[in-house]
Amino acid sequence: MTRIAITGALGRMGTLLIQEAAKVKDMQLVAGLDVVGAGKTLPGGVIVKDALQLESVLRESEPDVLIDFTIAKAAANNVCTAANLGINLVVGTTGFSPEQHSQMRKAIEGHVAAVITPNFSLGVNVFWKLVADAAAALKDYDIEIIEAHHNQKKDAPSGTALATVEAIKRALGDKEVMHGRQGIMPRGKEIGVHAVRGGDIVGDHTVLFAGPGERLEIKHQAHSRTAFASGAVRAADWVVGKGPGIYSMADVLASR
Ligand SMILES: NC(=O)c1ccc[n+]([C@@H]2O[C@H](COP(=O)([O-])OP(=O)(O)OC[C@H]3O[C@@H](n4cnc5c(N)ncnc54)[C@H](O)[C@@H]3O)[C@@H](O)[C@H]2O)c1
């Protein structure tokens, strides 16, 4: 039985994670925490606890894994609290600063196993591979990344777009990155990154490779958040029993 706790339990992703976890045999939600809605009853009967009480709730409920989909500042603290208690992690939150990344890395390494990715969907993990292959084959083409999300998204560009930049850099070596353009802006050899925000767009990512007389576009569109939630639940099942360290969704998918 995999015992899971969720921070951000009442959020868009938290709500879906609870539904997806309920479908998995041998998985039990033992705690749900949020900064709002303490006292509410979650599907399955677990009562939402105040996230300020995270440490004591984790001590009492003894989960194997904490799944965090909150905001970067909260997630960095939640990760450190859980890792200090020896609880494994699945982190979907995006928008971390380099300092927050290194704070989490220090807490995790040598202590617990964690799957951290800005995108848990199977399709995006294939998209990253396709983009890296195309970048290697089309070395001199201009590259633009265009992402679109709903109007409530806090961070920009998306964590998925930033991970796409990293996948391209791994294929081509370090490259300058330009976030949007305005005014007199002759194009150099940079990767352009553009964030669109509006309505209820779940998450679109396009990478455009433009060269002489042609262009190639590689595009992923999420139709619902279920793709992310089911991937995160699968990662939670996978991470229990793994050696300490930070894993990617590619590691989870490789073990199918
Ligand atoms: N990795 C992925 O596949 C993936 C997919 C979708 C969203 N995300 C990311 O997940 C995060 C959450 O997205 P969302 O759409 O569910 O947002 P949301 O705003 O709907 O939900 C976030 C929840 O976290 C709660 N919260 C805030 N601070 C908290 C704290 N200290 N402790 C516990 N709960 C806290 C909020 O009250 C809210 O209920 C964002 O960073 C988003 O970019 C990642």
Please provide a brief summary of the model.
The chain has 256 residues and is an alpha/beta fold.
CATH topology of the largest domain: Rossmann fold
Largest sheet report: 7 strands, parallel
Sheet-strand content, in percent, reads 25-35%
Strand order of the largest sheet: 3-2-1-4-5-6-12
Question: Explain this structure to me?
Answer:
- 36% of the residues lie in helices and 27% in strands.
- It is α/β, with parallel strands linked by helices.
- The protein folds into 2 domains: 2-116 and 225-254, Rossmann fold; 122-222, 2-Layer Sandwich (Dihydrodipicolinate Reductase, domain 2), CATH 3.30.360.
- The protein has a 7-stranded parallel sheet, with helices on both faces. It has a 5-stranded mixed sheet with strand order 8-9-7-10-11, with helices on one face.
- Strand 1 (2-7), helix 1 (12-22) and strand 2 form a beta-alpha-beta unit.
- Helix 5 (122-137) packs parallel to helix 6.
- The relative contact order is 0.16.
- The site of nicotinamide-adenine-dinucleotide has 26 residues, from helix 1 and strand 2.
What are the salient characteristics of this protein?
256 residues; 8 helices; Rossmann fold; 5-stranded mixed sheet; alpha/beta; Dihydrodipicolinate Reductase, domain 2
